[in-house]
Amino acid sequence: MWLLLHAIVLVEVKDFALIDGSMVTPLCPRGYFPCGNLTKCLPRSFHCDGVDDCGNGADEDNCGDTSGWATIFGTVHGNVNNVTLTQECFLNQYPQHCYCKETELECIKTDLNSVPKISSNVTLLSLKKNKIHSLPNKAFIKFTELKKIYLQHNCIRHISRKAFFGLYNLQILYLSHNCITTLGPGIFKDLYQLTWLILDDNPITRISQRSFTGLNSLFFLSMVNNYLEALPEQLCMRMPQLNWLDLEGNRIKYLTNSTFLSCDSLTVLFLPRNQIGFVPEKTFSSLKNLGELDLSNNAITTLPAHLFNDLQLLQKLNLSSNPLLYLHKNQFGSLKQLQSLDLERIEIPNINIRMFQPMKNLSHIYFKNFRYCSYAPNVRICMPSTDGISSFEDLLANSILRVFVWVIAFVTSFGNLVVIGMRSLIKAENTTHAMSIKILCCADCLMGVYLFSVGFFDIKYRGQYQKYALLWMESVPCRLMGSLAMLSTEVSVLLLTFLTVEKFFVIVFPFSNIRLGKRQTAAILSCIWVAGFLIAALPFMSENYFGNFYGKNGVCFPLHYDQTEDTGSRGYSLGIFLGVNLLAFLIIVFSYITMFYSIQKTALQTAEVRNHIGNDVAVANRFFFIVFSDAICWIPVFIVKILSLLQVEIPGTITSWIVIFFLPINSALNPILYTLTTTLFKDKLKQLLHRHRRKSIFKIKKKSLSTSFVWTDDSSLKLGVLNKIALGDSIMKPVSS
Ligand SMILES: *[C@@H]1O[C@H](CO)[C@@H](O)[C@H](O)[C@H]1NC(C)=O
Ligand SMILES: *[C@@H]1O[C@H](CO)[C@@H](O)[C@H](O)[C@H]1NC(C)=O
Ligand SMILES: *[C@@H]1O[C@H](CO)[C@@H](O)[C@H](O)[C@H]1NC(C)=O
Ligand SMILES: *[C@@H]1O[C@H](CO)[C@@H](O)[C@H](O)[C@H]1NC(C)=O
Ligand SMILES: *[C@@H]1O[C@H](CO)[C@@H](O)[C@H](O)[C@H]1NC(C)=O
Ligand SMILES: *[C@@H]1O[C@H](CO)[C@@H](O)[C@H](O)[C@H]1NC(C)=O
Description:
Blueprint: H1 2-9, E1 11-12, E2 16-19, E3 23-26, E4 32-34, E5 40-43, H2 69-76, E6 99-101, E7 104-106, E8 124-126, E9 134-135, E10 148-150, E11 158-159, E12 172-174, E13 196-198, H3 217-230, E14 244-246, E15 268-270, E16 292-294, E17 316-318, E18 340-342, H4 353-356, E19 364-366, E20 381-383, H5 399-425, H6 431-460, H7 465-474, H8 476-508, H9 518-541, H10 543-546, H11 567-605, H12 612-645, H13 652-676, H14 679-693, H15 705-711, H16 717-722, H17 724-729
Parallel strand pairs: 7-8, 8-10, 9-11, 10-12, 12-13, 13-14, 14-15, 15-16, 16-17, 17-18, 18-19, 19-20
Antiparallel strand pairs: 1-5, 2-3, 4-5, 6-7
Helix pairs in contact: 5-6, 5-13, 6-8, 6-9, 6-13, 8-9, 8-11, 11-12, 12-13, 14-15
Bound molecules: 2-acetamido-2-deoxy-beta-D-glucopyranose (NAG) (6 copies).
One 2-acetamido-2-deoxy-beta-D-glucopyranose is lined by residues 257, 282.
């Protein structure tokens, strides 16, 4: 079983695909990626981890996410910053404190409050960080040669409708970091040549005038006039060359299906940090050349199914930090050229492998959580590369956990094995009860096996866990381990409940004739195991419904799921831990409390009480420890489950602490509580050791009254309750004594 995982990690591929009859590329299995032109394939996690695993360095090539505008402008525009200027100034007129080079003029931080007088043949005008608060009509009308205007950091509030009139040659217009709230209709009317329009960090609320409709009629009329004049709601109507539009950090709430109509040349569209709540169908349908679209940090809750259908050339799409509730299963189906998809902080309840398959060129994908990466096996680089439980390097990130997993595994296995051995060696009068205890120990022992496996795999992957994380969670050993732990916990819980209920009937109804025979007990025990097996195995039945039920974290225990995981898994886990187990826990607590009071009452009724108070304390102690160990074990689990129901985010580390520290407590303590501390056991052990030490002496030890009562726990309990003396000495011995 252990070797299985290793076998699947390195795959030498023999299949080749002939593409175009000439190019030969290796075909890698799902989740694996080729080593350049070698025939070797390595899983995703071996790529871009800083280690040359291929041998030719191919796995460390092309790791950065360079898609989007950086590459687009590298190829479309050549080197943008390739300007060779002389020091000479060709402008006759320009303000003081400005800096002129050929026909380019920079007036930065010069306290200007309007556009100054400048020679008309200026080609670049930078008025950054001045005090220009408005741009009047025809502010630039003289500068017909102007190609670039920089107006950042001016707190421009008002731009007159004709401010940019006459700028027929303008290519680049920067208006970022101003106080612009609206873009009046027709203000970009003459900018036929404009390619870059940068408007980030303004309080612009709308770029489409559609939303005006419905206001008072007078206003509406004037708007209609404006429409007729400039068709302002179509941003690109008069700017057919518009290539780069940056509207980051504005207050845009609405986009309409005509906002970007006729923006055929648009390659980069930035809309992050706005308040867009809804993007209607066909909003981007004209953007045939769009290469990068950034809609991150908005308030988008739904995306129409066909929104991205026409973006045939899109390379980079950023949808991160939107409160998206749902992604259609074919949402990204037509993005054949997409290379980078950012879905950080988005929950995808219906995540599905088919969602990402059509994007053949996707090389980078970013998710909210690590587990989603298993749904995009065709993508070479997936972030984040680890979950909370495990660190980048190690399965168990915490060194205390690493040590304790072994300690607890040892205590659990050893304690239970000793008890099984002892119970078999020492012949008990009540064999049915002994059988139940032995079976309980068997179940608890499985927990030890589980913990040993966790420890083993932790060591195995030490230092390079992130490479194997997904493979590990998907692997058979992980699933088997998870189901083993589940089987152990559930059988243990059910058995404890059964033992408690049995004891409860004997003590609380001492005269009733409900008494289980050996055969009935055996039947019940078998049922409990069958139930345990069913509970553990059910998630294997339907991969569709449960997904990978066990492999949701490094320790393979299905304790916690975040809100988005498969509803099947979540519901099942909830039903088991907060349904079955909570019920069992309540039954146990209730039974012990009732038993305690019942015993106390019987004791009080009988006058001749030897050591009355001592007995009470002893009984209370023992009951307390049984209930207490159950509580330590289960209350953290219940709390986690209830918190997750209340949608509280639970860090992944909590799961590993609960699974390794709290859950096994019961398994480790059960042998002590149910056997090792009972007086009879101690007596028998003493006897046994005695006999072995002095074999020559055949001394038949007189069986004490108390001894016989303890061992036969339940059958003689009826007597025991009546006979306080026996009771005090035997069953209810406190752990400390
Ligand atoms: C792979 O490509 C490298 C150069 O990129 C070349 O030197 C090498 O011979 C190629 N190997 C094979 C097997 O084609
Ligand atoms: C870039 O600069 C070089 C000289 O440094 C010049 O030869 C080349 O034509 C320039 N390219 C562009 C696109 O301006
Ligand atoms: C710019 O215009 C001024 C007159 O306003 C003229 O003297 C100068 O030569 C012109 N420069 C260029 C580069 O055309
Ligand atoms: C835009 O949406 C409206 C309804 O909201 C519809 O009548 C119109 O046809 C749509 N326009 C385009 C180009 O899809
Ligand atoms: C997507 O947008 C967010 C925030 O706007 C940013 O932090 C992140 O780096 C972007 N993703 C990519 C792949 O550029
Ligand atoms: C993927 O990208 C490469 C260039 O990186 C391009 O040649 C190829 O056509 C693209 N594949 C698809 C399916 O578009």
